[in-house]
Amino acid sequence: MRYVRMPIEVESPEEYGYGNIRYNLSESSITDQSLGSLGLTIPDLTLLYNEHRGSPRLRELIAAAAPSLSADDVLVTGGAAGALFIIATSLLGPDDQLVVIRPNYATNLETPRAIGCEIAIVDLAFETGFAIDLDAIAAAVTPRTKLISVTCPHNPTGTMMAEADLRALADLAAQRGCLLLVDETYRDLSLGEPLPLAASLGPHVISVSSLSKAYGAPGIRVGWIVNGDPALQEKFLAAKEQISICGAVLNEWVAEQILEQRDAFLARTLPEWRRRLDRVAEWIAGDELLEWVRPQGGVVCLPRMTVEPMGGCDGFYRRLLGEHGTYVGPGHWFELSDRYFRLGFGWPTYDELEAGLAGISATLRG
Question: Please, which residues have CB within 8 angstroms of residue 244's CB and are 6 or more apart in sequence?
C-alpha cells in the first residue's frame, strides 16, 4: 500500500494548533465532551486484553438501534476511520472496483487509492442539491464492482437520502451482487426520524459509525462495523486482530456509559443543534456572496462563494485566519474548488460561531 497524507489531516486544526485559532469552524462534530460533562468517574478497571469483538455490553447497546440485529453483528473498532480501513483492506484489491460518491470523507477515497483498486467516482452536484443519483450509481457498477460506498447524512454537505432511496440503493447492490457501505456517523443528528440502520436492510449492507461526531468523544477512538453476514464479520475481525488485537478497556467503558445515556444526551444536544442550524441559515440568507444547500443532518454544511473572493481563494483563507482568527475547511479537503468550504457549526461555543460567521462575511468583502 502506498500511503499519502490527506490534506484534511495535514491541515487539520489539531495539526495546525488549536491555540493558533480563535474561532474554529472547521470541526465536524459537536463540542468535545469531558468525563465531567458526562458525569463519569472512572472505576478501578482491570486493564486486560478486552474481548476482540468489543465488550459485550457495548455491542448490545450499538445493536439496539435495529431490532433485527444482535451484538454478534457488531465489531467495535478504533473510530470510524479504523472501521473504514478494515473494510477497505479486507474487501478491496487491485482487481476490484469501488463505486464511491464525491465529495466524501477523505478516508473513503484515500484508503482504496492506497490499495490500488479501480475507483469509479459519482460526483454530487450543488445544482441538484447534492442529491444522490441512483441512475448514475447504477451506471457506474460493473461486474468487477465489489463495493458501493456512500455517507448519510452526508459529510461535508449535511444532505440526506430519503428512506426509499436508501432501500433502493440496497436493492441495487443486491441485484448486482456487490456490497453496500453506508457511513452513517451522523445518523443520530437528523432533522426528522433517523433512517433505518443501514445494516438492517440485508446481510450485504455494512454500517459504519462512531461516537466522535454526534457524541463529541473523538478522543476515545471508538467506532464500529455492523453487518449481519457472519463470514464478513469474521473477515473484519481477522483484520482488527492483526491491527490492534482488541480495543482499550478504558475507552470501551466510556463508550458504554455514553450509549447508556444516549436518549438523555440527544435530548440535550438536538435543540441546541437546531438553533445553530437556524442561525447559519439566517446568516447565509443575509449574505449575497454565499449560497448553500441546507443540511438535513450532521453538524457541517458546504457553503459556496457566489463570486471569486477578493485576492482569490488563497488570499481569502489567509485573511480569514490572519485577520479574523477564523478557520474553516477549504474545498480542496474534498477535491472541490476552494470556493466551497466546510463550515462546522456544532463544535464552537455559540459566541465563537457568531464571531466566526462575522469574520467570514468581512473577509469576503476584503
Answer: 78, 82
Biggest CA-to-CA distance, the chain: 58
Q: Which residues pair with 180 in a beta bridge?
A: 148, 205
Q: Could you read off the pLDDT of 173-192 as tens digits, one per residue?
A: 999 999 999 999 999 999 88
366 pLDDT exceeds 90? no
Q: Which helix (H) or strand (E) holds 252?
A: helix 249-260
**CA-closest candidate to residue 76, choices 298, 259, 255, 261:** 255
Q: Which residues pair with 304 in a beta bridge?
A: 291, 340
Nearest to 212 by CA among 192, 241, 183: 183
- 3 state SS of 301: strand
d(CA 44, CA 250): 10
What whole-number distance in Å separates Cα of residue 202 and Cα of residue 111?
A: 25
Cβ atoms of 181 and 87 closer than 8 Å: yes
3-state secondary structure 3-46: CCCCHHHHCCHHHHCHHHCCEECCCCCCCCCCCCCCCCCCCCCC
Look up residue 5 and give its amino acid: R
Q: Which of 354, 344, 271 is nearest to 301 (CA)?
A: 344
* Separation of alpha carbons 279 and 354, rounded Å: 9
For the chain, the residue count is: 366
- CA distances to 229, 230, 232, 287 from 69, rounded to whole Å, are 11, 12, 15, 46
Report how far residue 168's alpha carbon sits from residue 173's, in angstroms, rounded to the nearest whole number.
9
User: Beta partners for 205?
Assistant: 180
How does pLDDT run across 309-347, given as a tens digit for each residue? 988 999 999 999 999 999 999 999 999 999 999 999 999
Beta strands in the chain (DSSP E): 23-24, 74-77, 97-102, 118-123, 145-151, 179-183, 205-210, 223-226, 290-291, 300-301, 304-305, 326-327, 329-330, 341-344
How many whole angstroms from its chain centre is CA 54?
21
